[in-house]
Amino acid sequence: MQAFVYTSYPGRVVFGAGRLQSLAEEVERLGARRALVLSTPEQRDTAARVAEALGDRAAGIDDRAAMHVPIEIAVAARERAQALGADCCVAVGGGSTIGLGKAIALTSGLPIVAVPTTFAGSEMTAIWGLTENGEKKTGRDSAVLPRTVIYDPAMVRSLPAAVAAVSGMNAIAHCVEALYAVDANPIVSMIAEEGIRALAESLPVIVGDGTGLVQADDDALARAQYGAWLAGTALNGASMALHHKLCHTLGGSFDLPHAPTHTVVLPYATAYNRDAAPLAMRRIESALGAFGRGDAAAGLLALAQALHAPTTLAAIGMPQEGIARAAEIAARNQYPNPRPIERAAIEALLTRAWHGSAP
């Protein structure tokens, strides 16, 4: 059996229908008395309901969370938390909002209670990201890992089906990269494979025809949340490779939407590593079930198509003339990946993804 190192991280998960009702109790469990509630502008109403549920433990609301966590928004949120005397943050939302909570925690040490409303999985990782001068920088620090995560199907019931589709594909990307990470180990691989399986089974059910809101009962929604939980855990237990580096480059440098970028790039990054990580490819195919189709990359594309998700970089706003620059940025610093990072090959990958050619 392979030798490996596995690091587990502390954290409390409260899972199930109706569990949002325990939010005030969970804040109290942390010893906190004044919680700053974070959200995007679009989820201000949800944040207000959460603040109301907290009662006198709510210090206020900051609804400025944005994609890729622009550093100026992070600085402003830290200053607001300090001004309000907040001793805790409650992040209500997806990766953007939880990312803002992490940016506050990075320098202040304030604990985070995360209430996910998407399947991004950021709530289970110690990975932070900040965008400054058009480039996104990421890092790992245990200080940003949410102390408590509350998964309640009610919090994703109002999610647009189109958002659920790309958010779920984003989560699957975490699992895919964990399976071929340089520091992959049997525990993380088991978690990642189960995460892909849970999401591949539940996403088509809750997304339906891709219009309107998610359509399913609590069991299907909870299974997708379970998959997202596993995906975030897998990402936190292994290193990121080509896929995530490319998505950070495209998002930070071209302001592309986070989850749709992951959705589009995933089959192509997987194909790039196809021959260099055969065991990972077989596990991905198996976990995809009916979508496997004998090839991991083709199976991931088939799943995205079944979810009515975008499948080309052109469709999500990537300028064709930016492909060469993106490849140069992505290849600037070498990092662990099953196949060596080659600038020309990355440019070819992005070109196929821009057109939507077979991966």
Keyphrases for this structure?
single chain, 359 residues, alpha/beta, Rossmann fold, Dehydroquinate synthase-like, alpha domain, 2 domains, six-stranded parallel sheet, two-stranded antiparallel sheet, 13 helices, 8 strands, 11% strand
Q: How would you describe this structure to a colleague?
A:
The structure is a single chain. With 359 residues, the chain is of the alpha/beta class. The protein folds into two domains: 144 residues, Rossmann fold, CATH 3.40.50.1970; 195 residues, Up-down Bundle (Dehydroquinate synthase-like, alpha domain). The protein is built from 13 helices and eight strands. The strands form two sheets. It has a six-stranded parallel sheet, sandwiched between helices. Strand 2, helix 2 and strand 3 form a beta-alpha-beta unit. Helix 6 packs antiparallel against helix 7. The radius of gyration is 19 Å and the shape is globular. The model has no long low-confidence stretch (mean pLDDT 94).
How are the SSEs placed, and which strands pair?
Blueprint: E1 12-15, H1 23-29, E2 35-38, H2 44-54, E3 58-62, H3 71-83, E4 88-93, H4 95-108, E5 112-116, E6 127-132, E7 135-140, E8 148-151, H5 161-179, H6 186-207, H7 218-236, H8 242-254, H9 258-272, H10 278-287, H11 296-306, H12 323-332, H13 343-355
Parallel strand pairs: 1-8, 2-3, 2-4, 4-5, 5-8
Antiparallel strand pairs: 6-7
Helix pairs in contact: 3-4, 5-6, 5-7, 5-9, 6-7, 6-10, 8-9, 8-12, 9-11, 9-13, 12-13
